[in-house]
C-alpha cells in the first residue's frame, strides 16, 4: 500500500511540475537608465531574445551606453517579456504587439521624439513583426519615431531559424517559427522597410527605417556568410559566438563601437528634418553676379579655378572653341568683376592646378609628353613663373589624371593614359623640387576618375575608364593602398565630394557617364542620375533611394557651409553640344534626399564652381547650349 501511495505521489508531483513548466518565465524588470538633466528626447530600447531576460542577455551593455559621455542625450531602456525554455512561448507576432503597446505608453510621443531599438536573436523577429504588422495596417505614422534598428544575430532565413530552434522546437508550438513564415516576413521587410517603393497613396503602408544586422564570427546558428547573403553591405561582423557577440566588455569593443556609431550618425541625420526659416540665410546664392555671360575677359571651358587665401578666385587655362586660352584672370568678390593678371601666361596642356600653403600655385599636365611642373607665385608684383628642373616620371595627358596637394605639402599625381602608365602614382615635393615614385594604384584608371582627400589624409580613388575601375581604393600617406568597395555602376566624369559625416569622411558620388563595359569609352555611354555614398567605416557604397531630376556629367558639386551639396549644370546627354542643363539641385546627406532649388541663367557644362567666403557660390565659364560656344 505504501509503495502504491508513493508511486501515486510521484505521478501527481510530475504532472503538477509538467503543467507548471508550460507557464512562461515571469518577465524580469530592468530599471531604465535616465539622465536627470536635461530632459532627453531620445531613447534606446534593448529587446532580448526568447529564453533570455533583459539582465542576462545584455549584461552591462545598457550601462556602458548610459555612462558614455558622448551619449548623454540618450535614455536607456531594457524591455522584458515572459520567456523561458520550459514553457511554451507566445508567438513572435503577439510579443511584437506587446512591444508596440510598450513603446506607445511607456515611451510615449510626449516623452520621446526618437527611438532606437537594439535586439538579439529571435528578439529581432519580434521587432520585425511589430513593424510589419503596423505597416500592413496602414499605420506607418506610428513608426516614424523609430530612427534605427540594430539586429544582433537575428535569423534572416529559414535555414538559420531551423538551427536556432531545432533543439527546443517542441516548446515553440505556438511561435509560428517556420521557414516559410520567415521567408514571408523577410519578403515583407524588404518590400516595405529595406527598399520600399513608396508611391502616392501608399505612404502609410511602407516606411524606410535604417537598420544594421550584426553577425558573430563564431556564431553557431547565424553563420557570417548566410548573415550577409541578403543585406551584404549593411552587415557588420564582430568577434564571438551567438551569445558572446552582444556582450561588450568595454566601450572599445567592436560591438559597442558599432552600436554607438549607428546611434550618433542616426541622431545627427535626424537633426536636419527640414529647413527652418532661420536657416534660410544659409542657402547659397546660385550666382553672385547679376549677369554672368560676358564677365570673363576670355570665355573658356574645361578650365581651372582656385580660390586664393585672400578670397579672390584665379581662373586660367581651358579652351574657347577648340583654341587654348593661356591668360590668367582674377575674380574679386568685392567688385564682382574679373581682371586680367598681366605678364603671365599658362603653357598649353597644363590642365591641373594645386594651391600651396604659401599662396603659390603648381600646374601639371602636358599635351602628349612628360613635362616639368610650372609654379606661379601670386605673392610677388608682378607675379612670377618658375619651372621645376625635372620632368614627371610619366606622361599625364590633358585632364585625365588626378592631382592634389597633401597636408604635408607634397603633390599627389596619379593615373596616366599611356601604356603601362594608367596605374602609376608619383609625388612631387615643391620644396625639394623632386619627384618620388609611389606604389601603383590597384586598378587601371585612365580618364574621368576622381581622387578625394579625406580627413585622415588618405585618398579615395574611384571610377574612371579601365578594367576594375568600378572598384574603389584608398591610397594612404605612407604609400600603401587597399580596395574599398565597388560602385553600384561604372561611372566617369562624375563628382566625389567629401561630406561632414563619417570618420575619416564619407564621400558622395554624383552623376557621371555610365555603361556596362567599364574598360572602354563607348558612344552609348549615358548620364546617370544615381547617387551613391561611400561609407568610410564599412568601406561599402550605399545607393540612396532618390535620383537626380536631371542625370548629368561634367557638372560641379560643391559642399556648402550647412553640410549640403550644391549640384550645378553639366551635360544631360552624351553628345555634349546642345545638351547642357540649367537645373540646380541640392543633396541633403543627413536626410539622403535631393531637391531641385532653381535654374541657372545660362545652361552650361565643363564649368567651375568655387565657394566664396560669404557662403555664395561662383560659377565660372563652361560650354553653352549652342554649338560648343564658351562663356
Protein architecture, described:
The chain is α+β, with helices and mostly antiparallel strands. 17% of the residues lie in helices and 25% in strands. The protein has 9 helices and 36 strands. Helix 4 (92-105) packs across helix 5. It starts with a helix and ends in an 11-residue tail after the last strand. The relative contact order is 0.07.
For the record, give the distance between the C-alpha atoms at the N and C termini, rounded to a whole number: 113 Å
Strand content: 15-25%
Contiguous helical run count: 9
* Record field, number of beta strands: 36
From the alpha-carbon coordinates, what is the Rg to the nearest angstrom?
30 Å
Q: Structural class, judged by helices and strands?
A: alpha+beta
Largest sheet: 6 strands, parallel
State mean pLDDT (0 to 100 scale): 80
- Which descriptor suits the 3D outline? elongated
Core attributes:
631 residues, alpha+beta, 6-stranded parallel beta sheet, 4-stranded antiparallel beta sheet
Amino acid at each position: 500500500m505504501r509503495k502504491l501511495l508513493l508511486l501515486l505521489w510521484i505521478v501527481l508531483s510530475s504532472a503538477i511540475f509538467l503543467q507548471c513548466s508550460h507557464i512562461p518565465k515571469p518577465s524580469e524588470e530592468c530599471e531604465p537608465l535616465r539622465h536627470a538633466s536635461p530632459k532627453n528626447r531620445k531613447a534606446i530600447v534593448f529587446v532580448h531574445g526568447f529564453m533570455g531576460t533583459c539582465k542576462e542577455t545584455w549584461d552591462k551593455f545598457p550601462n556602458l551606453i548610459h555612462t558614455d559621455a558622448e551619449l548623454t542625450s540618450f535614455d536607456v531602456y531594457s524591455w522584458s517579456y515572459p520567456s523561458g525554455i520550459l514553457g511554451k512561448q507566445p508567438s513572435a507576432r503577439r510579443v511584437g504587439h506587446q512591444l508596440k503597446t510598450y513603446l506607445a505608453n511607456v515611451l510615449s510621443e510626449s516623452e520621446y521624439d526618437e527611438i532606437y531599438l537594439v535586439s538579439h536573436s529571435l528578439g529581432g523577429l519580434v521587432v520585425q513583426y511589430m513593424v510589419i504588422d503596423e505597416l500592413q495596417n496602414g499605420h506607418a505614422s506610428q513608426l516614424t519615431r523609430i530612427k534605427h534598428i540594430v539586429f544582433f544575430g537575428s535569423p534572416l532565413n529559414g535555414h538559420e531559424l531551423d538551427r536556432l530552434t531545432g533543439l527546443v522546437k517542441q516548446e515553440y508550438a505556438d511561435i509560428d517559427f517556420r521557414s516559410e513564415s520567415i521567408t514571408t516576413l523577410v519578403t515583407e521587410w524588404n518590400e516595405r522597410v529595406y527598399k520600399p517603393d513608396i508611391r502616392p497613396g501608399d505612404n502609410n503602408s511602407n516606411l524606410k527605417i535604417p537598420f544594421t544586422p550584426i553577425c558573430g564570427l563564431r556564431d553557431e546558428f547565424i553563420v557570417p556568410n548566410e548573415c550577409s547573403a541578403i543585406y551584404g553591405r549593411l552587415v557588420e561582423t564582430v568577434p564571438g559566438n551567438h551569445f558572446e557577440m552582444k556582450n561588450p566588455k568595454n566601450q572599445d569593443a567592436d560591438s559597442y563601437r558599432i552600436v554607438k556609431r549607428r546611434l550618433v550618425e542616426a541622431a545627427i541625420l535626424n537633426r536636419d528634418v527640414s529647413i527652418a526659416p532661420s536657416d534660410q540665410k544659409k542657402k547659397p546664392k546660385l550666382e553672385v553676379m547679376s549677369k554672368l555671360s560676358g564677365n570673363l575677359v576670355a570665355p573658356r571651358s574645361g578650365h581651372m579655378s582656385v580660390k586664393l587665401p585672400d578670397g579672390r578666385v584665379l581662373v586660367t587655362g581651358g579652351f574657347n572653341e577648340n583654341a587654348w586660352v593661356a591668360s590668367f584672370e582674377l575674380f574679386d568678390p568685392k567688385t564682382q568683376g574679373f581682371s586680367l593678371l598681366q605678364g603671365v601666361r599658362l603653357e598649353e596642356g597644363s590642365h591641373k592646378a594645386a594651391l600651396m600653403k604659401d599662396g603659390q600655385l603648381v600646374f601639371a599636365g602636358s599635351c602628349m609628353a612628360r613635362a616639368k611642373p610650372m609654379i606661379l607665385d601670386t605673392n610677388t608684383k608682378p607675379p612670377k613663373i618658375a619651372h621645376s628642373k625635372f620632368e614627371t616620371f610619366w606622361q599625364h595627358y590633358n585632364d585625365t589624371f588626378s592631382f592634389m596637394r597633401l597636408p604635408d605639402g607634397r603633390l599627389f599625381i596619379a593615373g596616366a593614359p599611356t601604356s603601362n602608365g594608367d596605374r602609376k602614382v608619383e609625388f612631387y615635393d615643391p620644396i625639394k623640387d623632386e619627384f618620388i615614385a609611389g606604389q601603383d594604384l590597384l586598378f587601371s584608371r585612365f580618364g574621368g576618375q576622381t581622387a578625394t582627400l579625406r580627413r585622415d589624409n588618405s585618398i579615395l580613388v574611384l571610377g574612371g575608364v579601365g578594367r576594375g575601375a568600378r572598384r574603389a581604393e584608398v591610397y594612404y600617406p605612407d604609400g600603401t593602398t587597399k580596395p574599398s568597395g565597388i560602385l553600384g555602376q561604372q561611372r566617369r566624369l562624375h563628382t566625389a565630394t567629401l561630406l561632414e559625416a563619417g570618420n575619416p569622411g564619407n564621400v558622395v558620388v554624383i552623376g557621371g557617364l555610365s555603361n556596362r563595359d567599364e574598360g572602354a569609352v563607348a558612344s552609348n555611354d549615358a548620364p546617370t542620375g544615381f547617387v551613391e555614398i561611400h561609407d568610410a567605416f564599412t568601406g561599402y557604397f550605399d545607393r540612396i533611394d532618390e535620383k537626380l531630376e536631371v542625370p548629368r556629367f561634367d557638372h560641379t558639386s560643391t559642399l556648402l557651409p550647412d553640410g549640403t551639396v550644391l549640384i550645378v549644370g553639366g551635360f544631360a546627354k552624351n553628345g555634349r553640344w546642345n545638351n547642357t542643363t540649367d537645373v540646380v539641385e541640392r543633396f541633403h546627406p543627413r536626410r539622403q534626399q535631393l531637391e531641385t532649388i532653381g535654374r541657372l541663367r545660362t545652361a552650361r557644362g565643363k564649368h567651375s564652381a568655387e565657394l566664396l567666403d560669404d557662403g555664395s557660390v561662383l560659377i565660372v565659364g563652361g560650354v553653352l547650349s549652342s554649338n560648343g560656344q564658351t562663356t
